[in-house]
Amino acid sequence: MNTFHFFAKNKFYYHKEQQLEPSIRDTRNQEMISNEGKKIVDDENSLTAGDRGPTLIEDFLAREKIAHFDRERVPERVVHARGTGAYGEFELYQSMSEVTMADFLQDPSKKTPLFVRFSQVIGSRGCNETVRDVRGFSIKFYTDDGNFDIVAINFPIFFIQDAIKFPDLIHSVKPEPDNEYPQGQTAHDTFWDFMGSNPETTHMAMWIMSDRAIPKNFRTMEGFGVHTYLFVNKEGVAHFIKFHVKPVLGVHPLIWDEAQKLGEDADFHRRDLWTNIKMGNYPEYELAVQIISEDQEFMFDFDILDPTKFWPEEEVPLQKIGKITLNKTVDNAFSETEQSAFHPGNIVRGMDYSNDPLLQGRLFSYTDTQQVRIGANYQQLPINKPVCPVFNNQRDGNSRHVIDRGKVSYHKNILADNTPSEVPPDKGGFVTYPSTVEGLKQRKTADSFKDHYTQARIFWNSMTPVEREHIIGAYSFELGRCLHVPVRQQMVDRLARVSKELAEAVASNVGVTVPDVEESTATKSSPAVSLMNTNFVANTLKVAVFLAEGFPGKEVDALLKQWKKAGMHPVIVSNKLGEVKSSEGMTFDVDQNFLTGSPLSYEGAYLVGGTGVNDYFHHQARTFIMNMYNHFKPIGAREESAHLLKEMGIEGQPGVVMDIDSQFGQKFIDAMAKQRFWERPSFLYNM
Fold first, then answer.
1. Looking at residue 402, what is its pLDDT?
2. Torsions phi, psi of 241, nearest 5?
């Protein structure tokens, strides 16, 4: 029976991987054949008139190859150009039928395939991945009712309230048009000119100056849908909702010095994602929602439709509804990741849009930009194609994949029995929520959207002293890179309305004054906003184990097994690659040497040494360990190596654990789980 006919009579279940399979090909061990089916004898020499004569235009094989190469790239995204993707699945915890009739949120036994694209906002496709920036966290759920996209970022709010300002925001943050630099950075005049000139950006500025703007990796990065959507149940009752994506490993950042030094590895984040999926360390996230009933819409001291405001979890609790697991890398980065197209307008039956003005603008913009970038038929590309059948009267357009039979491509008709036919609501047709809309036509910001400082102050109140220090440092660096004093002054004027403490510290560092303006009196805080209140686990963390010839093999082997059982990933580091032999004759494979490894790549270190320690080993191990110590990471060491820690002045400091008893293995696991020991002194100025 034809699959499409099967759908008409049965509930349609389809795995995305099965759907992709016909589009996947492997060219290994195959004959070389042109796109038109000609077997190729020579792919290295063009057709010429004589061995030194002119190349002939009749060489259709060379023309095909070069012409295709000339067109291999599609325009990169205006924003979110730098991205990487992975496949996964969503498993529901419990039915959400009470608040939505969305099919994929009904049955906990059902898995929904999905694709995730992580990205950066500012830079081009070749930019460094560890710069301070907003990250995209977009998810495409391939549901039986069509695609549903959460086009998320790693902050719960956005810069602006109305989409009409989005081109201005992006123009300001992109390289300045006269000199076309800096690339992928916010630390320049035009960006901070825009930010200071538009007070609605004040709250978002606090978030991007926080540690959340330099995530440690995509596996420990939170996602937020930002916008207010609607869930609609079978009874036609609607609730306002926001989407959250919480990493199981917790939300963890880099520190400024790490982010700067990691600039030498432009692919740091994508390599981490790829490597961990290949190792079986599948990134896991919990999908959560905040829910507000319609009769609660005006019960808060902020407008729930304002995209520059978050809903504090203490006032609107999170409800975790399912788990997202990423378990497969892409086969081809262009065909899948680069051609993936996300759109906040991709919702399914049981959902609808709110009047969030930024969302309303994005509903037009995202479809428009995808059609310009990859064509009118972008939904027919394998990565974007829904798993359910698609029938309508749309035809033609660039790169159309579907071959439609028959004469009819319009509605209504008698030649095809008025098919494709409309689907009534009781048969699964999409139903728009009948909300009441009224008011004068006008260009105006709602009065309830005009408080730009209260939530910025709540964010500041929620930060620990360490986080506040980092925010001050970030503002000081960013504004310090602005050449025009009025730009610096204007931004400090905004900060003074949030916190005089913050403004005074930044003003002192960037050479401007603190204005005499009214400071926000907000006393609330939201502990959930602080990264110090996230999950702290040792799972998947990498520990550098420094071994020299003649190390105590049995003791080290027992520790490595204990740490692997706890989910940690020990990496053997030594003078050179190959093998390193213990005092008992055991051999360990060396994963990294001091040249190929980097202290930035590890979350902790264990100094073992051995009888074969030489000056080179001593120097390199010392350099690695001091670097990690200055980044507040845990350090473990055998008692024989205590002299080295003493020489460095770090013996006995918080997070420095000595291997002196049988409890060391667990103590070090606990230290690794904590990840950073902010209370200890550092020899670096870290922002």
1. 93
2. -140, 155
